């Protein structure tokens, strides 16, 4: 009987057999498991586990800007997301506004039409311009709009084979035990049958809300915010998503100068909030939303308040929240011991400005002290690293190449210390160096000087040696730094960061380098475009690509792949070929500057040199993948390469044959990644053509590809290798972390002084720069 009523209510030609099949199979296919209700989720990432979800749509989300009628496009995208989550096996409920707006549109249309007809019949004259609309009573609008609103939801959900049911409630339905039990029973039955309940207050009969009517800790139903909270707790929902027309909860009214979006709100933070005016429509406001959210949180339901009107995010705001992404304001009862990542960024920027203002000797002293700590406290570092290594090995999910990156040794720490001392020397003339000086006019002098970029975010995987290197480069360049390391190296990273802060404390800039140790997703960090100036990923090509996609509004410095080529020319020396090819491939196969493709001139085939190359690679246990042309020359060839654009990162490489140096260049341009490419030849003319024509960040002649490294270049260390065409390219050291600004020193000059009526003329004389820093002016 219930199934028939719901079928008639939804106006959907329901196939009972198909619907029954969905009901029977749903518990077997759903991956989500019901959890014991009573405590809310502590972290955003846990929202993925939410099974029963209430989505509250505020009036500003559902209605158009003119408050007459519904925002159909916005509503359609919300329905699509709810239906998708429902089909994943979740139990979705919607608490919606919009009946009054829908009814207002309908009644206005009817009144205008009625007035128009009456005037046409009685006067016969065109007096439409004198028509005025009466003030429409909200209850009447709600009565006229409820059926249309529900019909719209039904039509939209039908597109996703999802059934809906309308439930109208009032405050009395929650105060009366019998009615509350009936409501609970009805909703439980609807959810069991895979039906989405559409719930709204019965605004056609509801009395005006009474102020301060909450009794004994039970929230009163004054608006849809309180309704959604009460319903979520009553139905033991895991998550309540409240969509409004603001991004979330701010510490002061949105639009004011100092307003900041609160990422996570805790029950004890109410006193730090200043509320603004209510929404343009609806009877609630942010204060009502916070009160309802805290009440739901106390009842064991997690809450997120987010923007449902922003066209850039409306199409995925609900699914993003359920996936644990940083959207809106998340209400949590558990406050972490440390600062949030936003607070860490602000502390880093503030301390970074002080760092940039230090004398170069002071920055060098900090770096030298860090180098000393690496060797003096090596036992502490290696003990932490052993813990990480043991955990990684026992877990068994890390590839051998990553295990090797994770490992530290006394020799590696000594090498790091040497590199840091090189950086300390470079720090002497980095920040504030005058690049250009121009005398614009008499007593008007212009300088272009180097300055820090600002706040850097460096994301690195299981490579703890990256932390002191990047920290030293940031200190030398006066940049604030946020570090997000892989969890595989968490113990090592923690110790290295403590040593870095100990070194920074020499001159009171401890907070300039921050280690993000919260459960922050990389994608969420990449959204802090107002706080972070440059992102530098250090890790796999997949990590780099993911960050490049996620970083909207923040530049990313790096390379997505390291497909490095070595071309053996017809005029190559046997000894050099064997040495360079072995080193390029076998020295550190997991490095981004390791050879991945070996190009052989066809004249070398079936020569002793070719045999020696093959024998050497076999001895080193390098697996060879034949390119299509190379395979055609052989009767029994190695396995054919699946792609000529592969970064193996192991003792594997592709081998292909080319007819000439020019064909090698064309091959590299087509299949390479513009990282590092090598020619081995004794012909200077051929080599120079290769060096000139090849468009890669690093191009070498008779040298291993492994030289593409900041330390080997004499940069001390590198933050990465960039294949970009702008800013820094190749191994990026200290210089790549600086930008410039223009400083003009005048004596009361104005632009009018240089006009036709003025008495001054431009000189534009280039002055010598020398080795001076900004402010150290010469006598010219």
UniProtKB/TrEMBL annotation:
The keyword Transferase applies. It holds the Pfam family AA_kinase. This is Delta-1-pyrroline-5-carboxylate synthase. Its EC number is 2.7.2.11, 1.2.1.41. One of its GO terms (molecular function) is glutamate 5-kinase activity. Bifunctional enzyme that converts glutamate to glutamate 5-semialdehyde, an intermediate in the biosynthesis of proline, ornithine and arginine. Residues 341-607 form the Aldehyde dehydrogenase domain. Pathway: Amino-acid biosynthesis; L-proline biosynthesis; L-glutamate 5-semialdehyde from L-glutamate: step 2/2; Amino-acid biosynthesis; L-proline biosynthesis; L-glutamate 5-semialdehyde from L-glutamate: step 1/2. GO terms for biological process: L-proline biosynthetic process. It is found in: Mitochondrion matrix. It comes from Acanthochromis polyacanthus (spiny chromis). Keywords: Amino-acid biosynthesis, ATP-binding, Kinase, Mitochondrion, Multifunctional enzyme, NADP, Nucleotide-binding, Oxidoreductase, Proline biosynthesis, Transferase. In the N-terminal section; belongs to the glutamate 5-kinase family. In the C-terminal section; belongs to the gamma-glutamyl phosphate reductase family. Signal peptide: none annotated. Can form homodimers/multimers. Residues 51-307 form the Aspartate/glutamate/uridylate kinase domain. It catalyses: L-glutamate 5-semialdehyde + phosphate + NADP(+) = L-glutamyl 5-phosphate + NADPH + H(+); L-glutamate + ATP = L-glutamyl 5-phosphate + ADP. It comes from the Eukaryota. The keyword Transferase applies. Its main location: mitochondrion. InterPro entries: AceGlu_kinase-like_sf, Ald_DH/histidinol_DH, Ald_DH_C, Ald_DH_N, Aldehyde_DH_dom, Asp/Glu/Uridylate_kinase, G-glutamylP_reductase_CS, G5K_ProBA. GO terms for cellular component: mitochondrial matrix.
